[in-house]
Amino acid sequence: MKKLLSIVLSLAIAISFIPLSACVYGKSVQKLEITMFDVGAGDSFYIEMPNGDDILIDGGLASYGQKIVNKLLKKEKNMSLEYVISTHPDADHAGGLQTVFKKLKVKNFYYPKDTSYSKTKTAKNLMALAKKESGCKVLNAKPGTKISCGDGSYFKFIQSKTDYKSDNEDSVMTYIKYKDLDVLLAGDAEKGAEYNGVAKIDMDIVTAPHHGSKNSSSSSYIKKFDPEAVWVSTDGHKYGHPTQAAFDRYKKYDKKIKVYRTDKKGDVTMTSNGKTKSYNCTGTLITKTKGNVSSSSSKTSTSTKTSSKYVYVSKSNTYHAKSNCSGMKTSTRMTLAEAKSKGAKPCSKCY
């Protein structure tokens, strides 16, 4: 009897040390985290998927490589990366990945095979390091490739199958899906390439392709992906990025679209459980100023709940998650909260 009581007591003590945040009603709490690193005029995104897979998309210029490694190791002391994705061989995207390969373990390296990684020293060196990495698979980021990452989440390459003349247009476009959350990281895609890859998807977040250049963020791109927020990786001035023309198109489509810029806010991190999302910085509304786009601060965003997600209300006063649900051609776009206030009922197919 004493032995049994001792065992029960030991179990009780052990259970008391389990963090409350680790479980809710016996189920593990899963989340997705995306960070847009501040790498000046380049691009670099870190994603932690619900199953714990670590993904790095691009690494900025070579001078940012060690800074990215330091940030990753701060998150996890012995971090290894399940996936490293190079969107295209430009130095402001591929450069920092060289240090990543030298300092961290990489298991899978994806790159666009329809671009050349032999034209520049940076691209050549990156490819050599990837092939040299022990146990690392070097893979073509083929359009349509889909990788599941736990709790129904996945990422998928959705760029066009067309082999363009420009490396920018051949950029890998990565779609990240987790329950109600939809995110698109578009690399330097521009012109027709930025919207030719897939059917219409309504996004919570998109990146401004090519850092908001005048040849990107077309009206077709914005309409097709219908974003609630746009992320811009930029230093605010190099190469004239981002341009006012690009942001005028976002503003014309929807004045409520929020902008998150690395030159204004540094690293931007979004965390989501697939239903709600929170930011570690302040959201900003698009405003017009002289020269390059500026932004006016709004209140700090702590949590964007499902009620603020946009829906599409049909003539029958039914709200839908997608504007083309069941072939619907006419609808009114509004927040879920607004739709409910008007007495709209949920679509049986969408919800």
Strand content: 25-35%
The global form is globular
Largest sheet: 9 strands, mixed
User: What's the gyration radius in Å?
Assistant: 22 Å
Task: Provide the spatial order of strands within the biggest beta sheet.
Answer: 11-12-13-14-15-16-17-20-21
Model regions low in confidence, pLDDT < 50 over at least 5 residues: 11-28, 288-308
Tally of DSSP helical segments:
9
The overall average pLDDT, rounded, is 84
What's the total count of β strands?
A: 25
Q: What helical percentage do the residues reach?
A: 10-25%
Quote the distance from N terminus to C terminus.
Answer: 54 Å
- Determine the structural class based on helices, strands and strand pairing: alpha/beta
Can you walk through the features of this model?
It is a single chain. With about 350 residues, the protein is an alpha/beta fold. Helices cover about 20% and strands about 25% of the residues. The protein has a nine-stranded mixed β-sheet. Strands 10-9-7-5-4-3-18-19 form an eight-stranded mixed β-sheet, with no helix packed on it. A four-stranded mixed β-sheet has the order 24-22-23-25. Residues about 10-30 and about 290-310 have low confidence and may be disordered.
